[in-house]
């Protein structure tokens, strides 16, 4: 998942909304549904998201909107990833894994072509 957001320690809910393309009420709802998503709050009581929280939001968004999981299905998938020892903030959706594999195969084929062309 892309990490094209500014490098800082904490992000406000409005910044996370801009980064992820979600509405704030959706983020607040997801916090109530996904125990893994629990940003800390600052002294004023405002949510303070970290990079890992944003990556989890992006993963949940991918599971719900792209993979078409239900809330319950996404909860099970996140639990499975956690039990497998996968850092859910770093978990790659299946299409990203495939893209990486295809890139490696392409590089190998280009290298093979250059060796055979000598």
How are the elements arranged and paired?
Layout: H1 13-20, H2 24-33, E1 40-41, E2 47-48, H3 51-66, H4 71-83, H5 94-116
Brief summary of the model shown:
This protein has 118 residues and is mainly alpha-helical. Helices cover 59% and strands 3% of the residues.
Question: What does this molecule look like?
Answer:
The protein has a two-stranded antiparallel sheet. A hairpin with a 5-residue loop joins β1 (40-41) and β2 (47-48). It is built from five helices and two strands, in the order ααββααα. The protein has helices at residues 13-20, 24-33, 51-66, 71-83, 94-116, and strands at 40-41, 47-48. It is mainly alpha-helical. It has a domain at 13-91: Multidrug-efflux Transporter Regulator, Chain: A, Domain 2. The radius of gyration is 18 Å and the shape is elongated. The model has no long low-confidence stretch (mean pLDDT 85).
